[in-house]
Description:
The protein is α/β, with parallel strands linked by helices.
Amino acid sequence: MASPPEIPQENPPKGKAPQKQPGKDSQGAAPSTGPWLIILLILVIGSLIMMKNSPENTGSKVDYSFFISELKRGNVESVDFHGDILTGKWKIRPENPDKEKKEKEEKLAEEFNTVLPSHPVEDRDLVPELIKQKVDFKAESTNVGIGTYIIPWLIGPLLIIGFFWFMLRRSADPMGSGMLGNFTKSPAKRFRPSEEQTTFDDVAAMEQAKSELQEVVEFLKTPAKFQRLGAQIPKGVLLMGSPGTGKTLLARATAGEAGVPFYSINGSEFIQMFVGVGASRVRDLFRTAKENAPCIIFVDEIDAVGRIRGAGLGGGHDEREQTLNQMLSEMDGFQQNEAVIIIAATNRPDVLDPALLRPGRFDRHITVDRPTKEGRAAILKVHSRKIPLADDVDLNHIAAGTIGFSGADLKNLVNEAALSATRLNKDQVDKEDFDNARDRVLMGPEREEILSEKEREMTAYHEAGHALLAWLLPEIDPVHKVTVIPRGRALGVTQLLPDEERYNMGEKQLHSQLAFMLGGRAAEGIVFGEHTAGAADDIKRATQITRKMVGQWGMSDVIGPVAFRHSDENPFLGKEMKSQGECSEETAHVIDQEMQRFLNAAEQRAEEILTENREKLDLLAKALVEQEAIDSNDIKRLIGVSVREQAKLDSAKETGTESQSENESE
């Protein structure tokens, strides 16, 4: 399920002339910033010149008392009055009176400025003293014209208005390159057809899903074929499936097969912090798609924007709901001759709004399942094309041992195997590397904790209890490996490996599953006379299964075939926090009693089996303490063939005997 690299759209589709986009010139450039930069530069230069010519910046700044003393000494050549500021020129540059600045500048500048006292009495002798010392002086008017007051107050607002006008001009750019345009325009990425494109040949397995999408491809290629008989192609295709099953790859392959523009966007990208942005992005996306039809719009994780409206605690999210309303309107706004296909993907179809799922919007719902054994083998071949494999690697055998893996899980498995071989400096990836990779994916990486002898022994008996019950109960999947090496969040792990695809489970199998889950706890009680906290996860999973058996699957004779909801799951998605009126308190008490009866019976069954086979339990626990990890071959050597395998052997013998008898009679 590998996909070639995506290539962004650069040229318009054939047969369409490039359209001039608003807010750009003929070359596609954004509005020029030259005039605004020139105006800003002029204002800055003017401000610097005004600051330089200001009386306060003339020469050295001195105290008024120092100026008076130098005036009486006859060292002042001329002065100018500028209101409260007095500037002048020395006859001889005096020494700097400021001790702190004297080291940097021993003498003052040739010109000076000082501030006149504000009270007129304090400087009434100044003019007579200037006349006495024969100093040239003059005064400038301090009256300021009305224009001088108006200009500073106009420049600031004009600059602000000009800035926002410039940004609004840039927001008209359809690609959203402006600051405001990034919020109001669709961020969908466009990819164009090329020689290196994704097709259905690059998608391993998923044959049914590909056949469903093949009709969409034919419509985009030859729409007249369908319109001739009045047929209408589905406007929307919803891909539903677990994470990692290849929904996005399928959408990209559909666009590659059709050879049309492909717009990709995530559902969360419609929502922003500003009101109305999501609806604006939806409008922009659909307008662009109509201009470039035929094309495909792919919305990944559509549940981020398409959840049920007006649901959950405190009502819905208004901005998200308005975005969804706009999307519903746009999907119904297509004309029948507009070849625009909406493909959406989600792993939560249960939370989508019913108006989004109705015919006329998403007409076709395609479930993308986890691959079968043959599909897993094909996917492994795709992901291992560039990896050198050793002769002992059998991809079909690996596919048989990875039941339940999705395409993404298989890709990760191959990558982990390659990393394992790289760490050991191997030239090829062999079977051992794939086994290590599978253990790492299923059980987690090994931890560095060192258990004490008692903890190690208790963990060994706990895992031996699980393994022995799986070995003796024919309804449980075969044991692949048992280890007391801490992995992931567990101190020990018993790994089962299904040998067949399973899509349903019977009541007998579920009861055996409960006994297997409580086998570790039962072994602890038999050997040590106490229980540990290591069985917490086993009890939790067993309780969840038991609740469904009693309250949903009708497997209790006391309760009968009635379904009750006992959880507050998803209260923000329109689900009730409590099942009010669904069952009485008496019925709830009976359900709890039945759950306890199921779990107690499972634990008692596990204790009885382990007590009858105590010697085998001790052998397995001892082997785990000594070796830390054992596999199915080690278990077979220690305690013999499993019940499940023995039943297969007996069945094969009976079949062979019957065949021989039939041949003799003939």
